[in-house]
Write a structure and sequence with these properties.
The chain is an alpha+beta fold and 155 residues long. Helices cover 41% and strands 19% of the residues. The strands form three sheets. It has a two-stranded antiparallel ribbon with strand order 1-2. A two-stranded antiparallel ribbon has the order 3-4. It is globular and about 35 Å long. The termini are far apart.
Amino acid sequence: MRKLRLNIIVLIGLCFGALALTALSAFAKSDQIYTSWRNQQAVGGYDVVSFFSGRPMKGDSKISTVWNGALWQFSTQGNLDAFLDEPQKYAPAYGGYCAWALAKNKLAKGSPKYWTLKDEVLYLNFNQKIQTRWLNDVEGFIIKGDNNWPDILGK
């Protein structure tokens, strides 16, 4: 009876171990668009088209679309229509991950509060401290980030 109990415990342990490895491998590859695990919103629910007017605005859940596996929200129907016409134009570089981190060959979330438009491309940074670093060499960091993207997603 004791041997049977031990075998069952070992079998249960192996099953949990296999399950844990499966779960870890599912997380080994990052999504192309950064979203919160809670709501799948791109850019924290901000209207990406509004950044191009210089006044970022929160989007409305009633004015939204799904693109590249993420939920994109907009402040106006016109902005949604513009995005639907050219999503690549308005979506942030590097899928909304922090542009400075990408240049350092790392993944970190980008924040809609710390953003830059460079050559009509939206770049997000993690926080104010990181954005200050980013602004010291935007062009250099873009070159490095471009070299790391999208290969970094498979790491």
